[in-house]
UniProtKB/TrEMBL annotation:
Keywords: Isomerase. It catalyses: aldehydo-D-ribose 5-phosphate = D-ribulose 5-phosphate. Pathway: Carbohydrate degradation; pentose phosphate pathway; D-ribose 5-phosphate from D-ribulose 5-phosphate (non-oxidative stage): step 1/1. The active site is at 111 (proton acceptor). This is Ribose-5-phosphate isomerase A. GO terms for cellular component: cytosol. It holds the Pfam family Rib_5-P_isom_A. GO terms for molecular function: ribose-5-phosphate isomerase activity. Gene3D superfamilies: 3.30.70.260, 3.40.50.1360.
């Protein structure tokens, strides 16, 4: 274990370390994005370099691709891999049914495509991401830049007609400019507070013109590995 980790980083590290035990020689592995997923990529890189583990990794963002190459993982595209044995990724929130909010790092589109093309998805997280009801974390929605304000208005009008507490959608910024995803899109963060019916919300959002994908992962995650600051882990 790296020395001098803060309790939160230790929790993320031990969750990642536990999750890579699910990775076997020869597997095609989806590599998530974010600070927790970065620990997993580093752990896999160490297994490749020091234990001779042979895997092909499909990254879910340009920054994960760069890290994976740096640590010695063979990187292939999803279309080269075709299907994945396992995907390991972080999350912004998870509930008791293992439904997730993802996209805090802006990579939700590739993350959802990759996780859906996997035999199993394992989420690695610290305990702070567990919630009774999804929605305190703003729900990221990827929208195309063309007419994004019209899409924002349509989303807000639709939310107003639904049984949700929060209704505002804010454009994610990167300094003075709109945040741009790997696919060249923008992100609207929906401040909903509480999502009573995540499945319905996900379907409604994805029917809107201009919406590319939303950050609700419903029935995609199979296992959650929770790490704790004292080094313990729990598998759900
Ligand atoms: C990126 C994601 C991340 O997995 C999520 O934001 C969690 O990130 P972190 O591990 O840094 O807390 O969905 O799009």
């Amino acid at each position: 274990m790296p020395t001098e980790l803060s309790p939160i980083d230790k929790a993320k590290f031990v969750a990642a370390k536990k999750a890579v035990e699910y990775v076997e020689d020869g597997m095609r592995v989806g590599l998530g994005t974010g600070s927790t997923a970065a620990w997993m990529v580093r752990c896999l890189g160490e297994m490749v370099r020091e234990e001779g583990l042979r895997i092909r990794g499909v990254p879910t963002s340009t920054r994960t691709a760069e890290l994976a190459r740096d640590v010695g993982i063979e990187v292939v595209s999803l279309d080269q891999a075709k299907w994945l044995d396992i995907t390991i990724d972080g999350a912004d929130e998870f509930d008791a049914e293992l439904n997730l909010i993802k996209g805090g790092g802006g990579a939700l589109l590739q993350e959802k495509i990759v996780a859906t093309a996997s035999d199993q998805m394992i989420v690695i997280t610290d305990a702070s991401k567990e919630v009774d009801t999804l929605g305190a974390f703003p729900l990221p929605v990827e929208v195309i830049p063309f007419g994004w304000q019209t899409t924002q208005a349509l989303i807000e009008e639709t939310l107003a007609a639904m049984d949700v507490m929060g209704r505002s959608a804010s454009l994610r910024m990167n300094g003075e400019r709109p945040f741009v995803t790997d696919e060249g899109n923008h992100i609207l963060d929906l401040h909903l507070k509480r999502i009573g019916n995540p499945r319905q919300m996900a379907m409604i959002l994805n029917q809107m013109p201009g919406v590319v994908e939303n950050g609700l992962f419903i029935d995609i995650c199979d296992t959650v590995v929770i790490g704790y600051g004292d080094g313990k882990t729990q598998v759900r």
